[in-house]
Amino acid sequence: MTVPGIGVVTALTYRHTIDDPTRFQNAAKVGAYLGLTPRRKQSGEMDVTGKISRWGDRLLRAYLFEAASVLLHRTKRWCSLKAWGLRLAKRSGMKKAQVAVARKLAIILHCIWVDGTEFEWGKQPA
Predict the structure, then answer these.
(1) SS3 assignment for the chain
(2) Partners of 52 in the beta sheet?
(3) How many CB atoms within 10 Å of residue 21?
(4) Which of 63, 88, 62 has its CA nearest to residue 3?
(5) Which of 13, 39, 59, 126 is the most exposed place for a label (fewest CB within 10 A)?
């Protein structure tokens, strides 16, 4: 719960859904497990990147999306994740940025759970 935007309900839902963090080879697989990665359709020369795949737990995906929204809109303190999300929102829109930040939050939560560390806010550039 040291991660901004993550509360008690989101943390408990994450822990219940993932259950055993060692079953993933790396943290990047968690985003795909929760359905937060883009769906791809490839055939010959055609390569289409679509919307998110929406596999996995629907409730946790909604909670992570809400946590990303809180991080981008409500959190006053500067962090590198928020800065990255806001730069992405300028390029591709707020909804896509929230999904991308939600995926990164899932990866960060997995790393924190495995390593036993805390969230690093980062240093604000001068």
Answers:
(1) CCCCCCCHHHHHHHHHHHCCHHHCCCCHHHHHHCCCCEEEEEECCEEEEEEECCCCCHHHHHHHHHHHHHHHHCCCCCCHHHHHHHHHHHHHCHHHHHHHHHHHHHHHHHHHHHHCCCCCCCCCCC
(2) 38
(3) 16
(4) 63
(5) 126
**Using one digit for the tens of pLDDT, what is the confidence trace for 74-105?**
988 888 999 999 999 999 999 999 999 999 99
Q: Please say whether the beta carbons of 26 and 72 come within 8 A.
A: no
Residues 96, 34: Cα–Cα separation, whole Å? 16
Q: Is there a contact between 85 and 91 (Cβ–Cβ < 8 Å)?
A: no
Reported pTM: 0.86
Q: Identify residue 115 by its one-letter amino acid code.
A: D
User: What value, to the nearest 5°, has the Cα angle with vertex 19 and ends 73 and 53?
Assistant: 55
Task: Say how far apart CA 105 and CA 68 lie, in whole Å.
Answer: 7
